[in-house]
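Quick log. Single chain, no ligands specified.
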Amino acid sequence: LQMVDAVHVFFLFSALRFLTDVAPDIYVKGGDYTLETINQEERRLVESVGGKVEILPGVAGKSTTSLVAKISRL
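-> predicted structure:
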């Protein structure tokens, strides 16, 4: 996507280390979260550097799990 500068997949429970390093303008979480249920340390860190946390709703029939399954069949 042209409007996305980078995507980072991390395998740790918390993204604090990553967020500290990159100080994102926007930190996006999936619609299964709310501002109240995300990791509040992550939220505070992003907001402390002037970033914004956005919650995006899921799209019916689309998921990263199904995307990975499709890719693995290639």
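The radius of gyration is 14 Å.
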